[in-house]
Design a protein that fits this description.
This protein is an alpha+beta fold. It has one domain. It is built from 2 helices and 7 strands; from the N terminus they run H-E-E-E-E-E-E-E-H. The longest helix has 20 residues. It is globular.
């Protein structure tokens, strides 16, 4: 269970930037939506084409969700990927859940096994951090933890 973010409403302009500059540019992503809608956006949901993954995972579309709150001294965010074909889950979180791992951590769940480790980003700008996460997910994490369908 995650510690709730201490901030207020997410920044709608930030979500537009994350959608436009990162998620819509990822070749694995086929659709990006505001949740619950564009006016009351509390998160972003990206639908991933399972056939564009390496390795492909099956017929149902995996999802990547992004919740991001700007705040000082560090933003609060959760970027979570889940694949209904494999039960695989990966999440990059900058919150108060695992202070022993540092400010941010990545957790990967395969079956009953969960692996958590601290993570540091090369950038501080939200769109660049999200780009690092998306690259890591598609280029390193998925090929390491998933088997071909």
């Amino acid at each position: 269970m995650s510690v709730p973010h201490p901030g207020g409403d997410p920044n709608a302009q930030l979500y537009e930037q994350l959608k436009r500059d990162v998620l819509e540019r990822a070749p694995q992503v086929e659709l990006v939506e505001y949740v619950p809608n564009e006016i009351e956006a509390r998160s972003l949901r990206a639908t991933v084409d399972p056939h564009r993954l390496d390795p492909p995972t099956g017929p149902e579309s995996p999802e990547l969700t992004v919740k991001w709150y700007r705040q000082t001294p560090r933003d609060w965010f959760h970027v979570d990927y889940s694949d209904p074909n494999t039960g695989f889950h990966a999440g990059w979180h900058q919150d108060e859940d695992h202070p022993d791992l540092g400010y941010a951590h990545v957790q990967v769940a395969v079956g009953d096994e969960t692996d958590r480790r601290g993570v540091e980003f090369d950038h501080e700008t939200p769109s660049l951090v999200l780009w690092e996460i998306v690259e890591s997910l598609f280029e390193e994490v998925l090929p390491t933890y998933t088997e071909p369908a």
